[in-house]
Each structure stands twice: as C-alpha cells, then as structure tokens.
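Students often ask why we bother encoding 3D structure as a string. The short answer is that it lets us treat folding as translation between two languages. Here is a chain of 92 residues written in the first language.
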Amino acid sequence: MGDTELSITAALAKLDLSDEEQTRFADEVKRMLQYFDLMADADIDSGAEADVPVRPVTALRDDVLSRFCDADALIDRGPEIEDRYIVIPNVL
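And here it is in the second language, the structure alphabet:
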C-alpha cells in the first residue's frame, strides 16, 4: 500500500494523520501485507486437521419451567414505578 492509498484510507476513516504517523503506518501496513502474502502462500490443502488436545464442551442445563414467586420485590427494584409497571424511557 503506497502513501497515496494510505492517505485515501485515512481520509475515508476521517483520520487526521501527521506526516510522521503516515510514515509509521505505511511501514506497518507494508509488513501486514507481507504477512498476508505469506499466509496466502501456505499450503493448507495437504495438511491434516490439527489435533486439539482439549475439545471445548458446552455445559447446558435442562430447560425447566419454574414460577417466580416474588414479583413485587422485582417490581420494587425498578427505577420508576407506575401502577405496578416499570417505567422505561421512550425509544422513538
């Protein structure tokens, strides 16, 4: 990525970069692009699937219907209550 492309990208992102920042970022972007080229050249078709020593396990609980008995205590915790309803700000 040349200095022109970096300037255009910075302008699109509404970034006001100093000359020093543009030079530093240009060098960093060049290194990233070189790394991407290395990754693109990697042969991933012939490799075997990586062996993962520990498989992630998702612990789920059964859905069980239960009654909530203390609705008054829950309603009383609301920031503003009106006729047993919690008042929330308008969103429109």
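Translate back mentally: The first strand starts at residue 81 and ends at 82. Keep this in mind for the problem set.
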